[in-house]
Each structure stands twice: as C-alpha cells, then as structure tokens.
Amino acid sequence: MIKIALDAMGGDFGVPVTVPAAVEAVRVNGGLELILVGDETQVQTELKRLGAANEARLSVRHTTQTVGMDEAPAQALRMKKDSSMRVCVNMVKSGEANACVSAGNTGALMATAKYVLKTLPGIDRPAICARIPAVKGHTYMLDLGANLDCSAEQLLQFAVMGSVLVAATEHKPQPKVGVLNVGQEDIKGNDQVKGAAKLLDGSGLNYIGFVEGNDVFLSDVDVVVCDGFAGNVALKTMEGASKTIAHFLREEFSRNWMTSISAAFAMPVLKALRQRIDPRKYNGASFLGLTGIVVKSHGSSDAVALRNAIEVARLEVEEDIPRRIDSQLEASLSARRTA
C-alpha cells in the first residue's frame, strides 16, 4: 500500500478541491492510501458531504496552521511548524508517508522540503521538474524556477535527476538529454551551458547536445535541462502563448454568424485539441534531488488536476525515484573519473 500525505489546506481553493481529489484518487487506485492533513473539522465536513467519511483508505491528521500563498518562505519555515504543509513534509521524513503532495505556496514548500528532508549526497540543490506537452508526447524540463543561477556542475546534476525520472516512469532506458541554449552550435551560450555540455559528454547519460526553445515541443528530446531563471520564463511564456491562442480562437469564432457556424462544425476538433493540451493532465511538478518525494500541484488546480499530481507522487514512490537518482549520480561520477 502506498501512503501519501496530502496538504488539504493548500492551493487557491483548499478543502473544496483537495478532499474531492483525494476521494476520487483512492476510488480509482486500490493500492493507495491518503492522509488528509489540515483542519479536521473542515476536512471531515467535506468527507461527509461526499459520502466518504467511512472510507478506510482516507484518514485525517489535524493541524492548526496554514501557509498563505503569498507568505514569505522564511516566515513559513520559522513560524508555521504546525501548518498542513510542514506536517506533510515531516510525515515523509518520519516514514509515516511515502510522499507528499501540496498545491500550496511553491517557495515555502521548496524551503520546507529542503530544510526537513535535505538533498541526496552529491546534489547541491533540488530542482523543479514537470512534463511539457510536445509533438511526440511530452518532454520533461528542469529546473522550472527553484534555482535562478546554476553552475555547470548543478546542470549536470539536473540532467542526472531528469534522466532517472524519465527512465523510470516512461520506461526509456536511455532518455535523450539536451541543454537549453540560444543555439545548437557548440560556440553559442554562456559559460555555464558550455561547461555543462563538457561534463555531460563524459557522464554516461544519453546527451544529444544543445537544444533551443522550440525543440522542447518539436524535437526528439526527452529531458531539457536549464537554470531556474530560463526554465520559469519558458514555462510562463508557454502558459501565456496557450491562453493567447485560446483567446484569439474565441474572438475569431464569435466574429459573425458565419464564423459561429464554423465553430459548431469545428467543435469536435477543438475538443480533441483541448484534450491533448489540457494542462490538468500535466499537473504535478516533482522536487527532484531530495531524500524524499515531494510533488507540487498548481495553486489553481481543480480536483482533476490535483488527482493527476497525486498520481505523479504515487508513480515516483512505486519507482523509488530518490534511490534511483542516488545510484545514477554515483554511476555518472564514476564514468567521469574513468573518462
């Protein structure tokens, strides 16, 4: 049985979203147990409303504090030791839970996870990794904002972590790894990406060279590595581009009666497109490099999106991702020593 601690108070909506997501998650997965961490009265009320108060694989751990979405990470770390977020991470540390999921404040969750769980040996900093929809299916990208400045060595560590995650969860023995750059030529880029390329050449990973922004969607690359500054800008650009296209489509289809009729005929295609790029399917960013498993759900997630984040955590527990990263990192270091 896989046991996951869920921050019931996290996100923009809290209990009205987290509890239905938990109920549905255990309903569709018989090997999953969820601990709902937060205000017991609120959680139990929602469980009763959903007719799930007696579900044996759902339990509640009461906490007295919550971390605000705009709260400073340092304050949350110092002052919110009985917050739903902190208790979730503590449960991973103590072994009461195999993983935790939160839709709460990203900075606070990263700071808490790093402080409580610590990083794996050989990992300087944890990185945020998520799937991005692409022509061939999807691409994994990291770091997406945890580390604004990174050394070449840290980019190598990110590559190892991303490669392990893809190999385990996508069943690809040798995932293709690329470093995000302003061009594919060796002479382009800053010192960090050039240095990372040299390290990756002798790492034993399936390194395919530099990739550009459009390659995230169009190229045959499985893992794209970058610093958190570039990764976060790229992620937000993708979100903005997606919303802009949707806005333009609505404008054009509602321009006059002829375009409205065209919209009716195009509806099956539009629905299929929406299904393929539905961001809820890709919800659940992994904090890789920690000794335990922590998954961040988007703050505005609905129950469907949060359930996908829970599934990401379940899969990482099943594949024992932290142990695999630890082993692969040691193998990469050995390869470099003998190169």
Describe this structure in words.
With 339 residues, the protein is an alpha/beta fold. It folds into two domains: 1-123 and 289-320, Isopropylmalate Dehydrogenase, CATH 3.40.718.10; 129-280, 3-Layer(aba) Sandwich (Isopropylmalate Dehydrogenase), CATH 3.40.718. The chain contains twelve helices and eleven strands. An eleven-stranded mixed sheet has the order 3-2-1-4-11-10-5-6-9-7-8, sandwiched between helices. Strand 1, helix 1 (15-28) and strand 2 (32-38) form a beta-alpha-beta unit.
List its traits.
alpha/beta; Isopropylmalate Dehydrogenase; eleven-stranded mixed β-sheet; lipid metabolism; 2 domains; lipid biosynthesis; 11 strands; 339 residues; 17% strand; 50% helix; 12 helices
Secondary structure: helix percent: 40-55%
User: Runs with pLDDT <50, length 5+?
Assistant: none
Total of DSSP H or I helical runs spanning 4+ residues: 12
Q: In CATH terms, what is the architecture of the largest domain?
A: 3-Layer(aba) Sandwich
**Could you say what the CATH topology of the largest domain is called?**
Isopropylmalate Dehydrogenase
Percentage of residues in strands? 15-25%
Indicate how many domains the architecture comprises. Answer: 2
Query: Structural class of the secondary structure composition?
Result: alpha/beta
The CATH homologous superfamily of the largest domain corresponds to Isopropylmalate Dehydrogenase
Instruction: State the CATH class of the largest domain.
Output: Alpha Beta
Order of helices and strands: EHEHEHHEHEEHEHEHEHHEEHH
Overall form: globular
Major β-sheet strand ordering? 3-2-1-4-11-10-5-6-9-7-8
Ends distance: 42 Å
Largest sheet geometry: 11 strands, mixed
Nearest-angstrom radius of gyration? 21 Å
Q: What is the number of strand segments? A: 11
Compute the average pLDDT: 92
GO molecular function: phosphate:acyl-[acyl carrier protein] acyltransferase activity
Subcellular location: Cytoplasm
GO cellular component, one term: cytoplasm
Function: Catalyzes the reversible formation of acyl-phosphate (acyl-PO(4)) from acyl-[acyl-carrier-protein] (acyl-ACP). This enzyme utilizes acyl-ACP as fatty acyl donor, but not acyl-CoA.
